């Protein structure tokens, strides 16, 4: 069983800066999944992560495309696989998951068979108007270490 790491943030800025700090521990080929209801903070989190990866462009939810790529110190591949709910379509996930950047996957459970076993699962939940709970579930030793460093 992997251990869980939980933090609570009190503002969008705090969520973004937590994600920005997480970015500093990431490498090419790292995969993060992001789950959480509408308004939980997935986009806020991803914007912070992008900043930490050195992305200059503005990150928005990839509502009409499945994947958006952003150049940075490390590229960011932002995937929203919601529209793949009822298909087993492989749109070439490995190119992203084993690519030169960091992948962030929203609605990742829709593509469970394609997810790498080594990844960081992140769940955001609403906890009142300005509080959010962020739960990290590292899968694999590397992400266990990342979580330990991040919580220091
Ligand atoms: P999602 O992409 O999951 O739908 P967004 O990031 O687009 O969520 O929206 C989160 C909303 O919640 C924003 O309006 C943001 O200002 C607000 N918010 C309030 N408190 C927080 C917090 N602690 N962390 C993140 N977002 C927060
Ligand atoms: Mg969003």
From TrEMBL:
<dbReference type="InterPro" id="IPR003442">
    <property type="entry name" value="T6A_TsaE"/>
</dbReference>
<dbReference type="GO" id="GO:0046872">
    <property type="term" value="F:metal ion binding"/>
</dbReference>
<comment type="similarity">
    <text>Belongs to the TsaE family.</text>
</comment>
<keyword id="KW-0963">Cytoplasm</keyword>
<keyword id="KW-0067">ATP-binding</keyword>
<keyword id="KW-0479">Metal-binding</keyword>
<dbReference type="GO" id="GO:0005524">
    <property type="term" value="F:ATP binding"/>
</dbReference>
<dbReference type="GO" id="GO:0002949">
    <property type="term" value="P:tRNA threonylcarbamoyladenosine modification"/>
</dbReference>
<keyword id="KW-0547">Nucleotide-binding</keyword>
<dbReference type="InterPro" id="IPR027417">
    <property type="entry name" value="P-loop_NTPase"/>
</dbReference>
<dbReference type="GO" id="GO:0005737">
    <property type="term" value="C:cytoplasm"/>
</dbReference>
<dbReference type="Pfam" id="PF02367">
    <property type="entry name" value="TsaE"/>
</dbReference>
<protein>
    <recommendedName>
        <fullName>tRNA threonylcarbamoyladenosine biosynthesis protein TsaE</fullName>
    </recommendedName>
</protein>
<keyword id="KW-0460">Magnesium</keyword>
<keyword id="KW-0819">tRNA processing</keyword>
